[in-house]
Amino acid sequence: MTIQQVLFIVIALAVLGAAIFVVTTRNLFRAALMMIAAFFGIAGLFVLLDAGLFAVAQVLIYIGAISILVIFAVMLTRGMQGMVPRNSQATAAAVTVAVVFAVLLLLFGPLRLTLDLARWPVISLFAANVSPRDVGGIEWTPPGQAIPAVPDTYIADFGRSLVDLNQYLLPFLLIAFLVDVVLAGAIFIARQRRPAEIVEDRQRQAEEETEEAEAMRRAGVLPGAASLPEGAVASASDH
Amino acid sequence: MNVINDLLKIIGDFIAGIINSIFSFSPFLADVVTMGLAAVILCTFAALSFMGLTYVERKVVARIQDRVGPNQAGPLGLLQPLADGIKMFTKEDTTPAAADRWVYNLAPLVIAVFALTTYAVLPFAPGVVGTNLNVGVFYIIAIGSGSIVAIIMAGWGSNNKYALLGAFRTVAQLVGYEVPMLLNVLPVVMIAGSMGLTDIITQQTTLNGNPGIPFIVFFPLSALVFLISGIAETARSPFDLLEAESEIVAGFHVEYSGMKFALFFLGEYVNALAVAFVFSTLFLGGYAGPVLPPYIWLLLKAAAVFFVFMWLRGTLPRIRVDQMHNMNWKFLVPVSIVHLVVVMALMKLFVTNPAQVQANGGILVTPGVQAAILFTASIAILIGSLVIAARRARIMRLQEEAVLEQRRAENIAAVSV
Which of A167, B67, B385, B386 is most buried by a 10 A CB count? Predict the structure, then answer.
């Protein structure tokens, strides 16, 4: 076993342990922290693959942004302090994830797992003597054979592949468009409303409430509104 | 080979040679030991400079505010950091009863680790660098975002509402100011054509036909915004919202005492010094400079930048939390984006590389002319944005005054009726 393989096994075990802790612990906050640990381990795997750019991006995006978002969302949930009720759909979720993962693995590569790191999908894009057809697959290299080195220009190659029509221009543009839409939507939701709009909103809300009350009365939930004053209908519909 | 200029490299090679001969049976083990030793030296350097900086900062701020500063421990108070250190070591190490023990105790370690790992990629002299990462700039920013996790851990683990509120505040600040920081590193990366710090410094020297102009001349606006967001990232005055005792006591580290508090303190200073180093590397040419040896140049530049930090701390009042967020999202980020787009267009239009002109078109200029054009554009955007902001602020102020005036008139009318 080479040093890389030992390191890979150590990091992989750490990631797996952290991931298992995430799904088994009852403390949501600790689960989020262990998820960060798992992300960090994955960054370590990228370093093992000679992919510094992806390792750093992993730290910046998954640890610096997504995890923080998750922690904030978790902190806003109830039951954060004490025991969290057991998720009754945990088994179903686990089975779904396992099936989807297996299908993806079958679709994008033969199920021949190996520890030959340089031929793994993302990195093999940049490895010198790997033909494009090998990209999706995981190939077996006999032990002792030299692992092809990642060229120094892989960042530039990666950047060019994003703007190359024959490679990833379309997915890149689609993602950019999606991000733009999300940004615009977030700004639209969070923007400061003009007074006229606020009045409009309130009117619409009031109308909806009266309609609801009307519907409920017709369905026989509420007694006839004739004897009730206006406010009583509105407050009754709140329940 | 000039002995004084390459002093650090010669010492390093000497030590590496000794280690290699001791571990001659296994080159891998020799590498591990050499790297470990380098890491220890870098961390010691950072920790020692933390001790020195606390003293210098207190003296400088005292002088600015017409005080004397520490003067009791040793001559000129020089032993003050030592006294502080002994105090920190001997203080009782407390843990709140309801704290999440693991998270609470890990947080100071995590923050110190993230602060110290920044130094792994800083080049101190030609060939003297922990590891010459080709994504150095990206790495520094990513590691900086890692300390956010530690702050949340501290705030949550303490089980104290002030700590949690402080953590929320700090996280909002750090996440927000990361955006202008990143946006203003981009022009430097684009003109240098690399994210490696060594390459960026080489581009600012006179080697290989480079003009030897520091990037602050190309992008003064980027340098300014980077400095501001750097200060905000390290939560130093005037962005030290956590120090507001009347509001949230001391923020996320309110429950920490003794050595754990010292680790937070160390993280803060080490981060600030790292920002000073990164600023000098990105915008002031790093270790490049005439006559003096490279490492002296780097230390001088970093010291100058850090002096600006102390100067601001000594003179500026603390800003409010809404002012802080408004300044970031409504001023720094839009200005940075406009600047980035303009600079990108200009760099495509005025090209210094003849091969690029043949491939993509554009006007061939000398690096000096390119610098002049970019400098003018940068300054123009800075002045323009300041004018727009000032006008906008004036309008808002007038509106507020009008509302107040109206209310006053109504009050008078009500009283007289």
Answer: B385
DSSP string, B235-284: T-TTS-GGG-HHHHTTGGGTT--HHHHHHHHHHHHHHHHHHHHHHHHHHS
Domains and CATH numbers, chain A: 3-81+90-147 (1.20.120), 195-237 (no CATH)
Cβ density class B68-102: b for 16+ within 10 Å, e for less:
ebbeeeeeebebbbeebeeebeeeeeeebeebbee
Query: In angstroms, how far is the first alpha carbon of chain B from the final one?
Result: 92
Average pLDDT over residues B148-176: 85
Vertex B334 angle, CA B333 and B336, to 5°: 65
**Residue A53 with chain B: CB contacts under 8 Å:** 135, 138
Structure tokens at B296: 């002296």
Three-state DSSP class for residue B129: strand
Spatial CA neighbour of B130 closest among B40, B49, B230, B23: B40
Convert the pLDDT of each residue in B66-85 to its tens digit. 888 888 887 888 888 888 88
Q: Which two tokens stand for residue A181?
A: 């839409």
Report the amino acid identity of residue A39.
F
Interatomic CA distance for residues B16 and B34, integer angstroms: 6
For residue range B212-238, what is the model confidence (pLDDT) as tens digits? 788 888 899 999 999 999 999 888 878
Instruction: Find the helix packing angle between B101-117 and B136-157, rounded to 10°.
Output: 160
SS3 A221: coil
B129 near B122, Cβ under 8 Å?
Answer: yes
pLDDT-wise least confident of A66-70, A149-153, B100-104, B128-132: A149-153
| Total residues found in chain A within this entry | 239
Other beta carbons within 10 angstroms of residue A18's beta carbon come to 20
Domain boundaries, chain B: 1-80, 91-392
- Over residues B285-290, the mean pLDDT reads 81
Global ipTM = 0.80
pLDDT (tens digit per residue) in B151-163: 888 888 888 888 8
Q: Are A18 and A35 in contact (CB under 8 A)?
A: yes
Cβ contacts of A52 on chain B, cutoff 8 Å: 133-135, 139
- Compare CB distances from A60 to B134, B142, B152 and report the shortest one's residue: B142
User: Could you tell me if B323 lies within 8 Å of chain A, comparing CB atoms?
Assistant: no
Residues of chain A contacting residue B148, judged by C-beta atoms under 8 Å apart: 64, 68
Cβ(B138)–Cβ(A53) under 8 Å? yes
Min CA distance, B72 vs chain A (Å)? 43
Window 157-216 of B, Cβ < 8 Å to A: 171, 175, 178, 195
CA–CA–CA angle B248, B249, B254 (5° rounding) = 110
* C-alpha to C-alpha distance for B374 and B4, rounded to whole angstroms: 36
* E strand intervals along B120-274: 123-125, 128-129
Q: Which residues, in sequence order, are bridge partners of residue B129?
A: B123
Q: Kindly indicate the confidence band of residue A14, based on its pLDDT and cuts at 50, 70 and 90.
A: very high
